[in-house]
Specification:
Layout (H helix, E strand, L loop, with lengths): L6 H11 L13 H11 L14 H15 L1 H17 L13 H13 L2 E3 L5 E3 L7 H17 L2
Length: 153
């Protein structure tokens, strides 16, 4: 199932990739790995790195913002790949040197929650199971599904 894409998710994914506040000044994915995932998603034409040096967060935010306007399916594919990469290198484990931080994870979880998706503590993302929801939470999830269907996502 494709992941949703909106401005809040774009901002949260960019913060997930941002390594400027990392104690080591570096965190995976590398720019080379971002190149790979951007190319695989078919979004190389939107990559500002081709015009000069740019940080990871700004680069990802620019590419995904363009995808939101032009190609949501490709943006969704890139979001999924980047989250998987961060998860695979320990970005969601507090004991990892690649840990992205609680705030970045909570922001991403909140952004997905609005769209009817859940981000687990280990970094996996999936749709909320409607059968487990009740009341206002069920209504919110159904509204999010309907809004995505209207956008064609």
């Amino acid at each position: 199932m494709p992941l949703p894409i909106n401005d809040a998710i774009i901002a949260a994914v960019a913060k997930l990739i941002n390594d400027s506040k990392s104690p080591t000044g570096h965190r995976e994915p590398t720019h080379s790995e971002i190149d790979f995932y951007v190319g695989r998603a078919g979004l190389s034409h939107s990559d500002p790195a081709k015009q000069g040096a740019v940080g990871k967060a700004k680069r990802v935010r620019t590419i995904l913002s363009q995808a939101l306007s032009d190609n949501e399916a490709a943006g969704s594919k890139l979001i999924k790949a980047l989250i998987s990469k961060v998860r695979s290198c320990g970005g969601f484990r507090e004991t990892s040197s690649n840990y992205v931080g609680r705030e970045a994870i909570e922001n991403l979880a909140a952004a997905f929650d609005v769209e009817g998706f859940a981000l687990s503590a280990d970094g996996t993302v999936g749709p909320k199971v409607l059968g487990a929801l009740q009341g206002a939470e069920m209504t919110a999830a159904l509204r999010a599904y309907a809004a995505r269907a209207q956008r064609g996502a």
